[in-house]
Write a structure and sequence with these properties.
The protein is α/β, with parallel strands linked by helices. The chain contains eight helices and eleven strands. It folds into two domains: 118 residues, Periplasmic binding protein-like II (D-Maltodextrin-Binding Protein, domain 2); 83 residues, 3-Layer(aba) Sandwich (D-Maltodextrin-Binding Protein, domain 2), CATH 3.40.190. The chain binds adenosine-5'-triphosphate and 1-O-pyrophosphono-5-O-phosphono-alpha-D-ribofuranose (PRP).
């Protein structure tokens, strides 16, 4: 790696963090403390000057767009919802892969009104139905979307599916795939210019690691 400047990398906590650590280790970036054990939110790494900041998935694009972090690792689902323009998205890291789907009850009653769709992905859902010319009522939830059809809150949900176990356990079936999801590397536009010498070889090494 060339000249080391200070570099802050924002990583979504949870499953993306777990899958990001081996990729970062491939760049010789290893947190000095175990993120699963420490309460610290900013972690020093084996590369002097390079730090990891562990934040909620939905906050990663905000930290990177405003330059509080130079780079970030975040799901495409979050990026689609964020919709910001002030970010580079140079690499599909191919981790935390799943699908965003429209799902509904296995056995459905007839619906004689506008379809109700519960989701935390309101923007992506609105765009999806708009491209089909369909008007639906979107109900914003913050988690456990699978509950909505069971309790009669909504007719459909838009959520992420991997194994399909969560849908199945709640009597739901996938109806349409909206998009494939994986985690992306994002880079602050100013950092891409100012820290290019440092960031470019990292991007190249990561691209090789993920087979691009
Ligand atoms: P928060 O707790 O901040 O609300 P969250 O519950 O969405 O976030 P995670 O469940 O760790 O956090 O998911 C973070 C990211 O992991 C998602 O944005 C998505 O890109 C990916 N992801 C979510 N569910 C799955 C899944 N079942 N399989 C693979 N990847 C997933
Ligand atoms: C995600 C998603 C689904 C589940 C799908 O939830 O929101 O509920 O995974 O995975 P599966 O198809 O393999 O069952 P997560 O486990 O992240 O819980 P949360 O979103 O409620 O935090």
């Amino acid at each position: 790696m060339s000249k080391t400047q200070n570099l802050m990398i924002a990583v979504s906590k949870g499953r993306i963090l777990a899958e990001s650590l081996p990729l970062l280790a491939g760049l010789d970036i290893r947190p000095l403390e175990d993120p699963a054990l420490t309460r610290k939110l900013i972690l020093e790494t084996t590369q002097p000057g390079i730090k990891l900041v562990i934040v909620r998935a939905t906050d990663v694009p905000t930290y990177v767009e405003y330059g509080a972090a130079d780079m970030g690792i975040v799901g495409k689902d979050v990026l689609l919802e964020y919709g910001g323009k002030g970010l580079y998205e140079p690499l599909d890291l191919k981790i935390a892969r799943c699908r965003m789907v429209l799902a509904g009850p296995k056995k459905e009653q007839q619906i004689n009104r506008r379809l109700r769709v519960a989701t935390k992905y309101t923007r992506t859902t609105r765009d999806y139905f708009a491209t089909q010319g369909k008007q639906v009522e979107i109900i914003k939830l913050y988690g456990s979307m699978e509950l909505a059809p069971i309790l009669g809150l909504a007719d459909r949900i838009v959520d992420l599916v991997d194994t399909g176990n969560t849908l199945k356990a709640n009597g739901l079936v996938p109806l349409e795939t909206i998009t494939d999801i994986s985690s992306r590397l994002i880079v602050n536009t100013a950092a891409m210019k100012m820290k290019h010498e440092q960031i470019k070889p990292m991007l190249e090494r990561l691209a090789r690691q993920v087979g691009q």
